[in-house]
Amino acid sequence: MKQSDRAKITIFHLYRKDGRALFLHPFDDPQVLLSLEQLEEVSGKYGQEPRIENLTLFRDDLYRSVDAAVRSWIQDRRFVPNLFMSAGVFLAVYFILSFGLRDPVPMVDELLIAVGATAGFYWYRIRKDRLRPQAMNMKEQVKKVIDHIQFREDSFVREVEGLLHRFESISQERLLESMMVPEETSFDPGDLEDARQLLSYLEKRFSAKVYRRQERLIDQYHTMPETGRNLSSLLSLSEVNKLDLSLFLTYRIIKKECRETV
Predict the structure, then answer these.
(1) By Cβ atoms counted within 10 A, which residue in 13, 41, 150, 192 is the most buried?
(2) Are residues 249 and 162 part of one domain?
(3) Residue 16 maps to a domain
(4) Structural element, H or E, at residue 179
(5) Same domain, residue pair 184 and 249
(6) What does the pLDDT average to over 30-36?
(7) Is the pTM of this model over 0.90?
(8) 33 within domain boundaries
(9) How far are the Cα atoms of 77, 136, 179 from residue 132, in angstroms, in the given order?
(10) Domain range spanning residue 110?
(11) From residue 70, how far is each of 38, 135, 148, 255 by CA, in Å?
(12) Does residue 162 share a domain with residue 229?
């Protein structure tokens, strides 16, 4: 997901019917995560008020993601300098062992020692790079934004949460039948921006090949009804792959609503 400068990001918290918390956001993309401090607004919305421990776990998960993203970012930036310096260490160690010693060790041992020295130097450089002021400052700034994210109750999220709970209350077969005949749902026009942002998160979540195949089967039914055959294929597909059908149907309804309001 590509974000422009001064964009707004909304995090959505949904409760599953069994009480599990579900946070939907774009921060699986390290570029989005590291651009947090450049955004105009980062906020959270919920239907049923989340427990404090859920918010704490979510924050800690984001902290770990920030640490990983910064490590990757600084390693990418320092890769070429570190590569050249490591190559220099390899050549220096190899030539010292080969020509600088009066009783040189066998050639294979020289290569192994040179490779080991190079690997040790490279990892030393990586560890040192992680402590560079630029990397530490980036971590601090992004985590500061995370600390200031505020969650508030929202009617649209409450409506989506209600849909999800309803779908979680029925059998897989009935869920699949519902997918064959789309439900009529209408969100408030003022919620369209939130609906589109939530849709973008869910689209990424359901971009796996197995979900795309499932959508193709559903769309085939709409143009060429073969209820029994398609239901059987979908039920088999969902059971084998343990698909999240209730959230998937919620996603399809939001997708349909967004398309119809374009």
Answers:
(1) 13
(2) yes
(3) no
(4) helix 172-180
(5) yes
(6) 89
(7) no
(8) no
(9) 12, 6, 52
(10) 76-141
(11) 16, 6, 20, 33
(12) yes
